[in-house]
Amino acid sequence: MAVVKLVQQANNAGDPKLATQGYGRIKRTPTPSFDPRREADAAVAYFEAHGFVVLSNCLSAEELAWLNAFCERSQAERPDAWGLGDRRKPHHRNQGLIYSQPLLDYPELDPYTRHPSSYPIVCRLLGGEEHARFAEFNFRETPEGAGAGAMNFHHDAVREDRLVRAPYNPVDWLCAIHYLTDTGPGTPAFCVVPDSNRYETLAEAHQALGDAYCEAPLYGPAGTCILYDTATHHTRLDGDGQQMRRTWHQYYARGGWLRSSLPQTSRYMRPPTPVLTDWNLFPERLALSPDPKVRLFFSHWNTSMGEWAASGFDPAVRAAMPRGEQ
After folding, report:
1. Structural domain boundaries of the chain?
2. Which of 47, 59, 78, 273 might form a disulfide with 63, Cβ 3.0–4.6 angstroms?
3. Hey, CA dihedral for 107, 123, 257, 161, is it positive or negative?
4. pTM score
5. Average pLDDT over residues 7-31
């Protein structure tokens, strides 16, 4: 999972008017969704204005069946990797199951890393295909009867210059969440605070946005994809604590240098974004692919990846690293 900066809602404690997750100003009207093939321009504009966008019908019925079957098969084949075995992952207690690095052992997932529905939109939001970089790919599941979790609103990795640079876009990091099961009231749901990506804390966003502040649960049928700027404040709403939800999460980083500006400067070159995690590994077949476009996409290496590559992709080196289950 991406590095997360939790925003503790201490200012809500003891106030019965405020929900335990955020300020309780839940948006009741549906959030618009966009067909990524026919409404790409509108989808990009909505994301750049609000810090997220909902894409409809991104996965076919056949893809959904295959991905759900993969989750069930890999849970049986690799229970420890999912957190189902004796070695539970402490950082995911009360947060459901996660399979952190499925690409390492399942090349049949490779086509999904640049899915034709969502990936073209991702590229535009990162400044073009030449700037899109792979960061992380995982599957998550909230099992039936999981009960309430304990997730507050937070943002993921951010760069501080986002608060002052001009223009703000392209974004630094981007996450795509594909719903593999239907998600509606009662099921766990991804929830965002629109327009909050330019504020350091949720309290700042709440004060600055005023009457426009809201917490928007993003419901949709299986196959829906949500793209969000990692600086946008978000959480997982628990629903009734009984229903199951399954999702595929993919994070992207921005590579290359971009021209921008900061206050009191006429020129500022935005560097590539830092790596998102210090543990995520890319399989050799992708990191050293003969296809130059694939190599570039998988070129955002962290130190662990560099050390594993230097070892000749030694399985023992991988096994000694965090989440390196085989």
Report:
1. 18-278
2. 59
3. negative
4. 0.90
5. 60
